[in-house]
Amino acid sequence: MSFPRLARLAAPIALAILAALTPPHVGAQQDEAQHVLRRGSLMPRTAIGRRGMARWNQMLAERTEGRLQVRMYWGGSMGDERTMVRRMRIGSLDAASLTSTGLSVIYRPVLVMQVPGIFSSYAQVDAVRREIGPELARALEGEGYGLLGWGDAGRVRLFSQEPIRRPTDLRRMRPWVPRTDAVFRQMLSVVGANGVPLGVGEVFGGLRTGMIDAAPGTALAVAGLQWFTSLQYATAQSDGFLVGGMVIRQNFLDQLSAADRAALFEIAAANHERFLQQTRRADERAFTALTRHGIQPVDVEPHRAEWQSVADQTRQRLAGRVFPRELLRRVEAIAERAR
After folding, report:
1. 21 burial type by CB count under 10 A (0-12 exposed, 13-18 middle, 19+ buried)
2. Is the distance from CB of 74 to CB of 278 less than 8 angstroms?
3. 308-331 pLDDT, tens digit each
4. Span 246-266, mean pLDDT?
5. What confidence score (pLDDT) does residue 89 get?
6. Angle of the 47-64 helix axis to the 4-16 helix axis, nearest 10
7. Average pLDDT in the 179-183 region?
8. Which residues contact 137 (CB under 8 A, 6 or more apart)?
9. How much is the pTM?
10. What is the C-alpha to C-alpha distance for residues 38 and 25, in angstroms, rounded to an integer?
11. Which residues have a Cβ under 8 Å from the Cβ of 154 and sit 6 or more positions away?
């Protein structure tokens, strides 16, 4: 299947995959800086990205008089999310952009933001994050990491080589399961399906070789990582979002003066909303582009009750094991009020 126009857009789309998860940075004057923050990301290195990162470092240089700069490690060069967390723990990496799945390696209850069947709108995500975000941030701090900012990177859908209309269709598929994703793994268990655990970098090859034939993901990810070249269908509806954030080793923050530490957080906060809205719009555009160039939307609404039942069972199985039941009840109540 050929998608010539979408392929030309792949590089800038890939840059945006995790852009809203954290404000981006790159080293412009790293060699002269007193403190160089080493940050890992799954984002690929592109010309657009380099220019954007340079602007951020310029802002940092001005606020800190050149004392603080960031060195960027692009495209998963520091490993997958679990590996980046491990590198931060041993001090060979200072910061990382992570999805909630990656954040759960640090503090497992963060996965409550990724459970199915609760979020159908960004308003609900925002409402829940406003109320429980601060306590999750404090929990991450308790594990030795500062949270520079929350974000999200689009609606999570099921993309596949054959149409998936109802949950039981997954039984005949070989869906990809991110290695650290307890939520999707549990959902497949409820359905009675088996997943194939792979790292993000292995998905493209897995789709090409037939090792996997379905993958959960956002339109941004599927387009930017070129998975669309091996996929033909996507669920038209979505009841979840890819949520995450950027964490920094507390040991690194402790090296900074109070003024430089404040500058780092204030610059992030000042640009957070802009990056968030840009990425949300980019994900919608990416899904439209995918459907215009061959990906066929599959209407799952006639089987909504089945999907909701699977989502409910998944949440209940995870409650008390992955996150406290009371936390799940609060998230459900907040999301319902914001519906």
Report:
1. buried
2. no
3. 999 999 999 999 999 999 999 999
4. 94
5. 95
6. 20
7. 89
8. 147
9. 0.84
10. 10
11. 218, 219, 220, 221, 241, 242, 279, 280, 282, 283, 286
pLDDT recorded at residue 221:
86
Q: How far apart are CA 28 and CA 158, in angstroms?
A: 39
Q: 293 φ, ψ to 5°?
A: -115, 25
Q: In the beta sheet, which residues pair with residue 197?
A: 177
Is 306 in contact with 167 (CB distance < 8 Å)?
yes
Q: Which amino acid is at 291?
A: T
Query: Side by side, which strands form the sheet with 157-160?
Result: 214-217, 157-160, 233-235, 296-298
> Which DSSP category does 119 fall into?
-
The predicted structure's pLDDT at residue 46: 56
What number of helices (H) and strands (E) belong to the chain? 12, 11
Contact 37, 94 (CB under 8 A): yes
pLDDT higher than threshold 60 for residue 17: no
Which DSSP string do the residues of 20-64 spell out, in sequence order? GGS-----SSGGG-SEEEEEE-SSPP-HHHHHHHHHHHHHHHHHH
Between CA 322 and CA 318 the distance in angstroms is 5
Q: What is the pLDDT of residues 291-314, one digit of tens each?
A: 998 999 999 999 999 999 999 999
Nearest alpha-carbon partner for 213 in 183, 242, 170: 170
In the chain, what are the helix, strand and coil shares in percent, each to the nearest 5? 55, 20, 30
